[in-house]
Write a structure and sequence with these properties.
single chain, 187 residues, alpha+beta, Peroxidase, domain 1, Glutaredoxin, 2 domains, four-stranded mixed sheet, 8 helices, 4 strands
Length: 187
């Protein structure tokens, strides 16, 4: 990554932290990335060399002006001015990783995702939070994600670790166990 990216991301992080809007900026980054993934034409317009910078700014203000914070709109304007709009996904990843490291290193907070086939109750999420906070000796914040392919149970992802307690995995293990037992008897 070149220094221009780093400067813009760090400035966004500093501004978000100072204005106590770190989570809001996260949400806004996710929203615009989701939009760009769904609408390639919009991204093409934003990176087109034939569209002047001021016109791109006007479009973004008209489309997102009421949706995003001033801080985030200023960031988008900066990306347009510096012809970095096509790098927003990379910048969002750097923002997310930096914030996650900050939370873990300085605040003792670690973030993770809980995947389940159905929505977890507030009590279930609190119980998982308590168990993993104790296990990791850090305050854990979970984002709940519905994944109907899991059949039941839950899967927790924290940093690079996955704790899989899903029905799907248990069935695979049971199947492998039967297969191994059958092969053992066949010998």
């Amino acid at each position: 990554m070149n220094n221009t990216y780093e400067v813009h991301v760090w400035q966004l992080i500093v501004n978000a932290y100072e204005s106590k809007s770190v989570d809001q900026v996260r949400t806004e980054l996710k929203a615009i990335i989701d939009l760009l993934r769904l609408n390639q034409e919009f991204l093409n317009l934003m990176v087109s060399p034939t569209v002047v910078v001021e016109h791109k700014k006007t479009i973004v203000k008209e489309v997102f002006g009421d949706e995003f914070s001033k801080l985030f709109m200023d960031f988008l304007m900066l990306l347009i001015e510096n012809h970095l709009f096509d790098r927003i996904e990379v910048l969002a990843e750097v923002y997310e990783k930096t914030i996650a490291h900050y939370l873990e290193d300085l605040a003792g907070v670690i973030e993770g995702e809980v995947y389940s086939a159905v929505a977890l109750t507030k009590e279930q999420l609190e119980q998982l939070t308590m168990v993993f906070s104790k296990k990791l000796d850090k305050q854990v914040h979970f984002t709940s994600v519905i994944d109907k392919s899991l059949l039941g149970g839950y899967k927790v992802k924290i940093s690079d670790h996955v704790y899989d307690h899903t029905v799907k995995t248990h069935l695979k293990q049971l199947k492998q166990s039967f297969k191994d037992g059958y092969e053992e008897e066949a010998r």
